[in-house]
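Here is a complete protein record:
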Amino acid sequence: MMDALFIALQLVLAVVGVYQFVFSLFGMYRKKKKDHFPATKSFAVLVAAHNEEQVVGALIENLKNLDYPKELYDVFVICDNCTDTTADIVRQHGVQACVRTNTNLRGKGYAIEWMLKELWNMPRQYDAVVMFDADNLAAPNFLSEMNDDLNGGARVIQGYIDTKNPEDSWITAAYGISYWYINRLWQLSRHNMNMANFLGGTGMCFETMMLKEMGWGATSLVEDLEFTMRSVQRGIYPKFNYDAKVFDEKPLTFKASSRQRLRWMQGHFTVARRYFFPLLWQSIKERSLVKFDLALYGVNVYIVLLTFLMTAIMGVDAVLFNGPNIANLYGYLPLWLSFVAVGANVLTFLAAMALEKITFKKVYAYLILFPIYLLSWYPITFYAFFTQNNKQWSHTEHTRVVRLEEVQSKQV
């Protein structure tokens, strides 16, 4: 019975792996033709900030200089439960500081929900809402790209999330490699196939009418994934804009990274429990590959957990019980196939870096430590499974003050 279960589970994991690899191939190219429209859409640009006095000023300066008519967008900084001078710095830059104090409902999702209610009651109404984090920097063309997509019929848009500090440490380099891979071989591949993309927490744009109809309703630890699920359930598919870049600050240390990723995985478990089966059932009833694909993405956290548990069990069996005593799918396959599978996985990350024309020398040097980052997801996910009911928001401190010119000069 145990042998049959292991073989079945390994077969499922292998099929999922092949499925994702095949999908990644559709990100190897970019569609050239794109429609451009005059700047007509108005934007409320929301910045979520909790004790961000170190970095919020640089972002405000950046947003003031976007290549878009100034009369068509306003910036609002959500100063959420701040105990530092974030609100004062925002006001000094001539931007509206929207101060929220609620020690019971903490976290970005709740802050956004509160801010949207405030926004709907303001005299001026906007065509769309754009969201950034306080540690971000936006490319000058960001709003122009959002304007093009909105005029083209998109209702939810995700920009290209890049890393503003990939050379600061081996951890920031690992984040950079992961995001270049995600942007190119996950997001772009699905964009090329007219599938639903997933939101990444920043660099997001939402049509106002849609937000008012749906409500925000995403208050888990991963509000971006939760809203993605809610919108796809309603037949609204988020779109990816490869040319609208937002640069995000990544944690410098393994400890800070682990805390951030633990929060992500805890929230991911919550969203998977809530949305996987309803979305899967919808995909079957409607014969929708789009909804099936997103359901599979939602349950990916359980796939990681299952992979870790099965690997651990087989390892214990081999070391303590002179195994293998449990049937292994790979025992029925030629050895070279295992090396091909591992090689193909490594190749996708290298291919993504090549396709994205990454030139950071330190990042390539840090590649030797990248497997440690990948493997660390397993114990983090395992721990997250047992602590998934922890709803406490863990803030990632941001201190890296970088100007857009510095980021762009390093990319040349």
Q: What stands out?
A: Residues 13 and 178 are 21 Å apart (CA to CA). The radius of gyration is 22 Å.
